[in-house]
Amino acid sequence: MRSCRVATLVSAAAFLASNACAADGKLLLTGGVTGIDGAAGGGLTPWAVTTGYGSEKQASATAFFTRVATRDHGLGIAGVAASCGERFELSFAHQDFATGDTGAALGLPGLHLRQDIVGAKVIVAGDAVLDSDTLVPALALGIEAKRSSSGGLRPTLASLGAHDHGIDLYASATKLFLLRGVLVNLTLRATKANQNGLLGYGGTVSDRVSVEPEISLAWLLRRTLAVGVEYRAKPDKLNPSALGAGLREDDWKDVFVAWAPNKHVSLTLAYVDLGRIVPAVQPRRQTGTYASVQLAY
Amino acid sequence: MQARHLPRLVAAIAIACSAQAALATDPLFDALGGKPGIDALVQDFVPRLVADATIGAFFKDTNLRELKKQLADQLCAVSGGGCTYEGDDMKHAHATMKIAKADFNRMVEVLQDAMDARAIPFADQNRLLARLAPMHRDVITVR
């Protein structure tokens, strides 16, 4: 219910904003794609860009759908975002993680872990694209308010000290080295999310936030096409726990290709490695595919 | 070596060095096809600008022949071709127009289209754009 209300609100804001003026003033792909948490950037990490193609004096709205299929799990994500004046961004994302056999092994067959994320980002300085004569990146500050719904696993997570809501704060520095057609992003995220929040926030190890680096590198091959790699470090606050190292988590990484044939649609395909997820039950690494479509207006 | 020969030697080296400098043109200038290539690019680029739905209106009172000459000189100078650009500086040339960042980006896209039409490789396009992009600070008048 709550997530529906938020989604409606963000959608309405996005619709109003996008009707205020046309939103095609940015160069192709310079709004990035939509990441798993709903913010504009790479697939795993937000960048110091705003969603869609609204430039200064313009606004834009985007919607996205992402499907991650690893060896034992599936993650579906959908959301919307709006940007204003190439400075502010609001986003909402809903994640639905199907635990597959892992849930069954825990005595919770059909278990889904769900999470809602409301995000806001502001570009505080710089221009990631046009300041090609300096090394100064664009800088953004962002917040992601997360609430998870872990169904039958909730009592277990609570007993391990994990909360069902948390807040991530991040700072991103993004620079397009136009001369080489290479984009570099570094994000520092203050977070205590377990598996990005799908297993709650904080836990047996500590209830304090950790600062974790996230890196994206992208090469522009053509105006419409980019390839790249990403690495997202994560805290590990449920390791050790009552399950020993059974809830240990790993950093996430991917190799991606993003294609934007025009300013209304982009398609991102990636190979992801989410590391081990609940290795007490399933010790193999969760590698697989990532497919995401973004619609922009 | 006798000291009185030294100035002559220095002069000889200086001449040799400057001749070397004159011979070694900027690879970007060559990639654009030299001055003939830049002239051809501009001949195609300017009509595209004028016809553009977003920014064409900016050029309705422009002397296009003059614009083509100045643009060709400017692109030649910027790409290391040794031309002298004699037009107004970017700030004064655009001061009376209401140019938003979206307009600047649109101009970049039209230039990309023109470079695509001349089959200039994407990497070379970006090398030229990297030298032009900082002009956004003077060209954009509406922030």
Model description:
The complex is a heterodimer of chains A (297) and B (143). In chain A, 10% of the residues lie in helices and 45% in strands. By secondary structure, chain A is mainly beta. Chain A has a single domain (2-296), classed as monomeric porin ompg (Porin, Beta Barrel), CATH 2.40.160. Chain A has a twelve-stranded antiparallel barrel with strand order 3-4-5-6-7-8-9-10-11-12-13-14. Chain A has a two-stranded antiparallel ribbon with strand order 1-2. With 143 residues, chain B is an all-alpha fold. Chain B has one domain: Globins (Globin-like, Orthogonal Bundle), CATH 1.10.490. In chain B, helix 3 (34-51) crosses helix 4 (64-78) and helix 3 (34-51) packs across helix 6. At the A-B interface, strand 10 of A face helix 6 and helix 7 of B.
Low-confidence sequence ranges of chain A: none
User: What is the count of helical runs of chain B?
Assistant: 8
The value of Rg of chain A in angstroms is 19 Å
How does the major sheet of chain B shape up? none
The CATH topology annotation of chain B reads as Globin-like
Largest beta sheet of chain A: what is the strand line-up?
A: 3-4-5-6-7-8-9-10-11-12-13-14
What average pLDDT do the residues of chain A reach?
94
Distance between the termini of chain A: 26 Å
The CATH architecture category of chain A equals Beta Barrel
Q: How would you concisely characterize the structure shown here?
A:
The complex is a heterodimer of chains A (about 300) and B (about 140). Chain A is mostly beta strands.
